[in-house]
Amino acid sequence: MRTTRTTAAIASAVVALTLLAGCSGGGSDPTDDATLTYEDSPLAAYWEKLGGSQDPEDADAQMARSEEIVAACMQDEGFEYTPQDTSGMSKSFEDEDMPAWDSLEFAEQYGYGATTSSEMPMNQGGGEEYVDPNADYLATMSESEQTAFYEALYGKQTMSEEPTDEETAVEQEYDWTTAGCQGKAQHEVYEEGQIYDDPEFKDLMESMSELYTDAEKDERTIAAYRDWAECMAEAGYDFANPQEAQNSIYDKVNEIPYDEEDGSQDPAALAELRDDEIATATADRTCQDSTGSARKVLEAQFAVERDFIDAHQDELDAMVEKAAQADKS
């Protein structure tokens, strides 16, 4: 199903932006409000200034720019390429009928979203059917010409069997230079020139990346997870923290083999796992709510962030200023 790859590449960019927004929006100081969320992150104001916009229009503009780069690149490779209309695509990943991802209602309906993604409203169809704007052009090509087109677009695809010896398996890191015009576009729009890669702020970024490890080791976090684990034990589960609970489901999903022909997983196996997922996620969220662990973990994280800001105020301000100057140039 080669014609779906471009859509998948764009969707990945939207999901990445959505996740970033979910973890770093808002920027207000946490209060005593019981509805404390990730959006109250003290570092959020800095991420916003460094380009972490949550505005769907900004995401649409980036996707449109990516498609323009792909088209120019494909022309250089000797092919015609009609950019996809990405307007409003970022909003298609939102659904007003969906409960909040961190709510008990979501857990009761969709678990962690591992086996239930097809049940979510945005995946139920009913919208306009996707039409590849390059389909007619591709139809005029021979099989070898189509292969060349896709290699120019995505890079040469190599298929190999998964290694059976885990100790000898080598993880392949993504290299945009081998990912064709799509790789070039993704790099130029989402990676190139990012202030995060500036050598001047290398030490600052490394320290920032350790923040969440520090938060996990914080005594307040440890105490919150201990209360949560005791609650889960009463429900018949043995996990140290919510991430372990969620990973237990995704690990089981990953054990279900893929069909070699269509790349799908056994629907019967997924359906069998679904009940386990819903039950685990529901117990997880119930315990987070009843023990207050979710809020306590966020309080610990935000306290660590505030300490970091106090210790690195000048460096953070300098990074924001340099990023702003780069945008003007």
As a percent range, the share of strand residues is under 5%
Number of strands: 0
Instruction: Please trace the helix and strand order, writing H or E for each element.
Output: HHHHHHHHHHHHH
- Relative helix content: 55-70%
Largest sheet: none
| Shape verdict | flat
Q: What would you note in describing this structure?
A:
This protein has 329 residues and is mainly alpha-helical. The protein is 57% helix and 0% strand. It has helices at 5-24, 44-49, 56-76, 104-110, 135-139, 143-154, 180-190, 202-209, 211-217, 219-234, 242-255, 267-291, 293-328. α11 runs antiparallel to α12. The longest helix is centred in the C-terminal third of the chain and has 36 residues, at 293-328. The chain is flat. The two termini are 41 Å apart. The model is unreliable at 1-33 and 163-171 (pLDDT under 50).
Task: Give descriptors for this structure.
13 helices, flat, 329 residues, single chain, mainly alpha
Summarize the structure.
This protein is an all-alpha fold. It contains 13 helices and no strands.
Fold blueprint:
Blueprint: H1 5-24, H2 44-49, H3 56-76, H4 104-110, H5 135-139, H6 143-154, H7 180-190, H8 202-209, H9 211-217, H10 219-234, H11 242-255, H12 267-291, H13 293-328
Helix pairs in contact: 3-7, 4-12, 6-7, 9-13, 10-12, 10-13, 11-12
